[in-house]
Every structure is written in structure tokens, then in C-alpha cells.
Design a protein that fits this description.
187 residues; alpha+beta; Nuclear Transport Factor 2, Chain: A; five-stranded antiparallel β-sheet; 5 helices; 5 strands; 31% helix; globular; binds zinc ion; Tim44-like domain-containing protein; Tim44-like_dom; NTF2-like_dom_sf
Length: 187
């Protein structure tokens, strides 16, 4: 299926689904996860990843820590983001996305300049395959309509897109971060 058909399929169930917003979020989250991985920032990984993927990453990072190895990934530039598949499962929906990037990626011995693999200054190209999950029958609601920027419950003005709940009525806003989780991540 080409992307256009996939998006039409998604919109059959979720009319407000925004391809642009979704892709923007995918790109941002990939950058955040890469940075968290380099810094061994488990809290951030836990926030964005489903438990099974998080536990795998935690194990890999702990092994690297034990062996005093750091994987530096930085200066990521995104070239293209493509939605390649979409599946409605009994209890969830799964999106498959390919993100083509270039970045600096190398392995280093802790507290030393020794490079184990990769290059400090040579950019490499990589295609990341992501599976992203959200609850079945989720409906994209206020997320899309940034033009109004008001609380869907009480109508109070929202000052920041990152705001997690309404300052007046305390309603928790549904955001991309609360609705979508990374289920798998491969190169
Ligand atoms: Zn409110």
C-alpha cells in the first residue's frame, strides 16, 4: 500500500488523523530517544517506549555500562519519514514508519578517547524502522486544531502546546506523547 492509501485507511476510523502532525512527532521522538540512548537516560526511554522495548533497551544499556562503553549518536538530520503500514489489531492499532536520517554514530570507551567503531566526524546514513502503537478506536481530537488552542473541557486558553493539563479546570489533555508509544525500533 502506498502512503496515501494507508492514510485513507487510518482516516476511515479516525477522521482527524493528521499525517503531518504524526510524522513530526515520529521525527522528534526518534531524536529524543537517540539522545536519551547516548546519555543512558532510562527515564526518557521509559516514557516513550512500551514496556517490552524499554526492558530490552535497559538491559543493553546496562551491559554497555558494565563494559564501560558509550554509544554516541548525535547531530541527526531527518531526510524522509514514510508511513509504510497500518494494522488494526483486536486491542490496538500499529503504525509502521521508516525514518531516513544521517547522523554521527560511534562507540567509545568511557573516559578515554579510544573509538571502538564508527567515526567522530563522518556522517552516516541510516533507515530506522519504527512500530508505533496506540489504543484501538483512539480518536484524534483537539491535537489537530492548533488554531483554537482552547481547553476542550472548559474553553480556557492554552498557552503552550506542551501544557499537560488545563490551568483552570485541571482536565488532562490528550497529547501525542500520552497516546502513542514506540513498540519497536530497528536499524
Ligand atoms: Zn479547562
Amino acid at each position: 500500500m502506498v502512503e496515501k492509501e494507508i492514510v485513507e485507511e487510518i482516516k476511515k476510523y479516525d477522521a482527524n488523523f493528521s499525517k503531518i502532525e504524526f510524522k513530526r512527532w515520529c521525527g522528534e521522538v526518534l531524536k529524543i530517544l537517540q539522545e536519551a540512548w547516548s546519555k543512558k537516560d532510562l527515564e526518557t526511554l521509559k516514557y516513550y517506549e512500551v514496556e517490552r522495548l524499554y526492558l530490552l533497551h535497559e538491559e543493553q544499556l546496562k551491559a554497555m555500562q558494565k563494559n564501560k562503553i558509550i554509544n554516541v549518536t548525535k547531530d541527526m538530520e531527518i531526510n524522509e519519514i514514510k508511513i509504510i503500514d497500518y494494522n488494526r489489531m483486536p486491542d490496538c492499532e500499529i503504525f509502521k514508519v521508516i525514518i531516513s536520517v544521517s547522523l554521527i554514530d560511534y562507540y567509545q570507551k568511557e573516559n578515554s578517547m579510544m573509538i571502538l567503531s564508527g567515526s567522530l566526524n563522518q556522517r552516516v546514513n541510516a533507515d530506522y524502522k519504527l512500530e508505533i502503537v496506540r489504543d484501538k478506536d483512539f480518536l484524534t481530537d483537539w491535537l489537530v486544531d492548533k488554531s483554537t488552542m482552547v481547553c476542550p473541557n472548559c474553553g480556557a486558553v492554552i498557552n503552550l502546546l506542551q501544557q499537560k493539563k488545563c490551568a483552570y479546570c485541571d482536565s488532562v489533555f490528550i497529547t501525542m506523547d500520552t497516546s502513542y508509544k514506540i513498540m519497536s525500533l530497528e536499524i
